[in-house]
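Hey, I was hoping to borrow your eyes for a little while. I'm sending you its amino acid sequence along with the backbone structure tokens. Take your time with it, there's no hurry, and the full record follows here.
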Amino acid sequence: AWPGTRVLAGAAALLPALFLLRCWGLARAAAADTPHARRALGRLRRVPRALPGDLRALDLSYNKLQEIAAGDLAGLPLLRRLDLAFNNISRLAPDAFAANRLLEQLRLFNNSLAHIPAPALRPLANLRCLDMSNNLYGRAALDGVFGTLRHLRELWLGGPLLREIGRDDLAALKDTALQKFALKTAAGPLRYRAGAFSWLNVTELWCDMALDGSAAALPALLRDLRGKPLETLRFRNLFEFAYYAGSADLFAGLAELRATKLVFYRGKFDERLLRSALLNVAGISGLRLDRLLLQDISNPDVLRFDWTFTWLSGVAALSIVNVNFNFVPCDAWGEMRNVRVLNVTGNRLEDAYLYSQRCHYGAVMPKLETFVLANNQLSSLAVLAALTLTWPRLSSLDASRNGLGARRETCRWNGNLRWLALSHNQVTAAAFACLPTGLEYLDLSHSQLDRLDASFFSRSRRLRELRLSGNKLKFIPSGWTCPSLEVLAIDGNSFGVLARGSFGNMPRLASLAAGDNPYHCTCELYLFLQETRRRRRPSLRDWPGNWTCYHPEELLDTAVAAYTPWPLECDVPALVAVAVSGTAAAAAVAAALCWKFDVPWYVRATWRLVRSRYRGRRGGGGVARRCAYHAFVSYSRADAGWVRRELLRRLESATPPYRLCIHERDFTPGRWIIDNIIESIEASAKVIFVLSRSFVDSEWCNYELYFAHQRAVGLGSEDVILVVKEPIDARGLPRKFSRLQKMLGSKTYLEWPPEPSRQPFFWMQLRNLLGSPRDGEDMASAGNSETPNQPPPPGSASLINRLIN
């Protein structure tokens, strides 16, 4: 508070729990690192035995203790805090605390003590905080023992049977400088003896007393407090059952008090009683009110503003909370010219009764900085913007718990507004067009919002904190941009996907709350979390407690923190590396297998066959297949002498002669070798293979074998004649001669006998396999007409041999 100012409140400035437990809460917080014992609720009927002797704090509240006997606490010499509240204790032995001389806080609240236990308190010279309120004694007379408690700072007395406060009941406290004194009396008439409070030397006085039927006690009480160092005076239920109907000015003594804070909590106040209190406070020359709080008052008529509050011009903080008023006249705004904080939470204000076209708002509220309109019945953001537009210093506006945001409106806002709370409203995506873009703080949590307007956030370049918790957002906008955002809360929505780029356009984002969403536990989410942990920003405020998997089904209700995919599943670089390595390994294995099984040779051969046939079709030869030769002879260069000397001489000199095709003589010069091989084999009735070790080493012989085998598939395998010139081991042949291996294993072949005596039989067998030359006379004539048997041009044989071998 400013020097020389006061606070007047007609409400709960402090909670009742604080009234009873303030000392104990502070004591427990301070003792967090000291030995402390807490016993099970409702089970103990006596103080437990064998407690640790080094205990400094013991909580036995909410049990069924009826007595603290001598020796119950004798084993706790270091005890400093003891809570015995909410039991049924009716007796404290005189030496109950004899061994606890270090005790500083003692709580006996809500027990059954019929007398103030002064003898039991005598050893407690270090006692600082004592609560004996809400017991069953009928007088508050304090024994001289209280005068010896020089360290006592907080004292609670009274209960539901205390109906009289004698003049000397509190005399023992005259030399004790109390920070707080609280007194509770019975609900009926109270007999207050003048001078009873004159003994007090206290800075904060709480009076829980109902003066129904004994209103005259209030002026006497206030007179007794004159000249005291009182800073706070709080009354609870001053008039509990009926409004004050007397004519006396009950608060006349307020003007003579030094209190800077006056609280009226609950009770029945009408306009006349409240006015009496306010005018007595305002009647002092030069006095200003720091804060005026009107809350939970039973009669809302006191806030109809039917009479002029001239003293409002000195109020700096005005709170009118939970009194159900619904109308503010125009002249009331003009009286609040010095108000900096205005709080009208929990009333029934509607748009038309808060803002009226007949009122002039331009010169009012020139100092207002904070306006709280929470929990009313407002529905138009445009009305709210118009009301606050001309208030030059307004920077904070709280309109939570209304019905705002459902309309599509155009709004013009105060340019100084930086803090806006619209939680628990009915905001739609259309409402973003009506929101100010100069905000630094925006709260739209719990407002049924189902999607965002990303353009609003890109324009809100000052926005630093955004709260969207508890809405129905189904997705995070792609490329969501908000350059200055530092704090974001999107927990409790309906989206399930977060990716590494979700917040990439928020470079200053440092804090994120995103739990309680139905997450799809996939690599996208996993990589987002990995990236967040690696960069250490943004920090996840609600991690890991509220992060749960919703999809896939096998991970339903699994904690996201427990989702650990297979290492390579989400590591794209590693996955690519493994894939490339695997592919390379597979290619290497395939290459090795191809080399081992001569696959390249077969591929080349097939390609040459296809290419040759394709060229043949393109060449337009179109000649039908004719058997111009009885046989095509395939042999290696090393066996050429045997072929010319033996094979050709024997067969071509026969009567009638056989017509044979050999490459040295019969291939057409200038044509592709493969074309010559294919056409010669197709133009021959039979194919003779002269097998030897040189044959196996010749690639072109293998081609001829391959093409002959291809022809045999279509025309029959009896067209192939195998002549083994030299013994060869079929099992030792290379893989590319697998067809030859099969032929040697499945066909009858001829072996060339080196003995001259056996050679005639060899030629007879070969002629039988070739058939009679007469069967091919027409073939020969066709061959003579189409492919004359001319000797090759000079040098052609050597050229062909070089190409083949």
Remarks:
- Residues 1-7, 10-33, 619-625, 780-805 have pLDDT under 50 and may be disordered.
- The longest helix spans residues 572-596.
- Residues 640 and 646 are 10 Å apart (CA to CA).
- The two ends are 113 Å apart (CA to CA).
